[in-house]
Amino acid sequence: MAVQYFRAIDGLGRIVLPAELLHHLNWEKGKMSVSIEGKDGSLIVSSVPAAGKKLLPPSPVNP
């Protein structure tokens, strides 16, 4: 049986990421947009850069 994870969704429809993940990725709460997709059994988390910034490479997160 596959493991399922549930995340809270705020009033604007945004997924609320756990503080542990934000700390591990060195992100500040509410300061970035991310794209999350599944690939080969892993989650690929990509951040959307602020204006004038370079896009960082995806950060794989294994469940």
UniProtKB/TrEMBL annotation:
InterPro entries membership: SpoVT-AbrB_sf
Alphabetized SUPFAM superfamilies for the sequence: AbrB/MazE/MraZ-like (SSF89447)
Official protein name in the record: SpoVT-AbrB domain-containing protein
